[in-house]
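Example for tutorial group B:
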């Protein structure tokens, strides 16, 4: 039986917005938040967002906050953007979802074409999923099965980099290398080879970090390349480890070494893609075309879950065979290529183009660099790492010795809490404060955000007003 309600009847079924107290109580009672120690969380009053305007978020008590970390590195053009809203509404009038298993939909086709146009030359095939971790799972399985399909069964290992983060599904965790996040799951995981990621702040001798990385990789490839299916890298900036920026030339050399030893190169551009580093994709900084690229986060402007794993014709051909050969890539997700997500992603790319956003980010990044010397004069600001609008501010106990704060000091948490009180939202990575504002932020807005950051750092680390 189908129930049809008149407009007047529907109104009685609308749910009124509860009070803050009601929402806070139900939040603690029913929700389990990601990457959150719930015992700590439940001891405090929760922040509950109701709406967004531009680069600000507004809570249910009508207080505004700058979105200083782009809602976990996602947001591009700000919140409640008319063009993006309209793209979703228009698509809703047609269809909300249709599977890609054995059929197609219009926005998924159109977006795939656009992605091939804007990603590094040579990436010609698009496989959709719904988030960065699932995109990484696809990349790993694709690389593994490619060699199997070619009749080379020995290539079943992967190379990752120390302190890497690639997502929270089992394959993605297996190639992750942050003990805090990954160690507990070790019995569930496959074991990759791990090489150092060059951290120039923690490596005293100039050039030593880069040299150690490249020498370690070259030695490993010389000895083990016959076992290795692929190396996976966060290009140019390693995000969750604390915004560690690669020395110039590192990415290109890694790609060249992988190619020379017949090892596939996977670029995890989930965080670095879509203008965040001052190029549309971080690989462009060193003119690198990976064999497989994973993109997500900014793909829809921060609106809907969508990801894509792009690869080359060479890898695609490894799966292109007669049905009986069973070389099909047996992988898929229920919402793969969702029309709503693809439609808003297309509108997002149009805004990138019409607003010249990538060039804007590159210019804003240069302008922001002039603001950091004042921060570095403070006694507990050890290092500031930046590529485009990906910025990490590392706080230390002793600046000369580069002594980190103890985990129990919760210094990043305390500074972020003070930022929130002052009207800026961010989320720390241990002792590193993350500053990743929406790419559309004006310079006046950026100025206000960094003034809050500065004030919070001084007040918390020095115990006095800035």
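The residue assignment follows.
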């Amino acid at each position: 039986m189908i129930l049809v309600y008149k407009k007047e009847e529907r109104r009685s079924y609308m749910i009124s917005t509860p009070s803050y107290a009601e929402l806070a109580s139900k939040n603690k009672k029913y929700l389990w938040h990601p990457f959150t120690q719930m015992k700590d969380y439940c001891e405090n009053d929760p922040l509950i967002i109701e709406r967004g305007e531009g680069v600000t978020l507004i809570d249910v008590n009508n207080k505004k906050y700058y979105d200083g970390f782009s809602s976990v590195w996602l947001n591009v053009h700000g919140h409640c953007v008319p063009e993006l809203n309209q793209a979703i509404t228009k698509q809703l009038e047609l269809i909300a979802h249709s599977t890609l298993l054995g059929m197609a939909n219009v926005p998924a086709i159109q977006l795939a074409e656009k992605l091939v146009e804007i990603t590094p030359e040579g990436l010609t095939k698009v496989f959709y999923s719904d988030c960065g971790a699932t995109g990484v799972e696809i990349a790993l399985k694709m690389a593994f099965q490619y060699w199997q399909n070619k009749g080379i069964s020995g290539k079943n290992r992967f190379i990752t980099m120390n302190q890497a983060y690639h997502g929270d599904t089992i394959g993605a965790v297996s190639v992750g290398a942050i003990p805090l996040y990954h160690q507990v799951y070790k019995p569930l995981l496959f074991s990759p080879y791990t090489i150092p990621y060059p951290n120039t702040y923690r490596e005293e001798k100039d050039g030593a970090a880069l040299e150690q990385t490249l020498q370690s990789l070259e030695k490993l490839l010389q000895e083990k390349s016959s076992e290795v299916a692929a190396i996976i890298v966060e290009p140019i900036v390693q995000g969750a480890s604390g915004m560690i920026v690669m020395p110039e030339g590192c990415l290109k050399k890694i790609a060249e070494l992988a190619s020379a030893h017949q090892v596939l190169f996977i670029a995890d551009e989930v965080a670095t893609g879509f203008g965040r580093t001052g190029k549309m994709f971080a690989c462009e900084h060193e003119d690198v075309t990976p064999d497989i690229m994973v993109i997500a986060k900014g793909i829809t402007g921060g609106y809907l879950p969508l990801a894509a794993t792009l690869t080359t014709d060479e890898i695609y051909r490894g799966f292109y065979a007669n049905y009986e050969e069973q070389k099909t890539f047996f992988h898929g997700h229920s919402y793969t290529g969702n029309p709503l997500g693809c439609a808003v992603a297309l509108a997002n790319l149009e805004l990138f183009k019409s607003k010249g956003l990538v060039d804007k980010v590159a210019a804003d990044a240069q302008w922001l660099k002039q603001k950091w010397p004042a921060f570095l004069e403070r006694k507990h600001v050890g290092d500031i790492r930046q590529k485009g609008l990906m910025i990490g501010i590392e706080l230390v106990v002793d600046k000369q010795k580069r002594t980190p704060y103890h985990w129990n000091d919760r210094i990043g948490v305390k500074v972020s809490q003070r930022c929130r009180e002052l009207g800026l939202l961010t989320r720390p990575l241990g002792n590193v404060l993350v500053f990743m504002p929406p790419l559309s932020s004006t310079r006046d807005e950026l100025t206000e955000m960094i003034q809050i950051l500065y004030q919070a750092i001084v007040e918390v680390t020095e115990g006095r007003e800035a």
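The chain has a mean pLDDT of 95. Compare this with the pattern of hydrophobic and polar residues in the output above.
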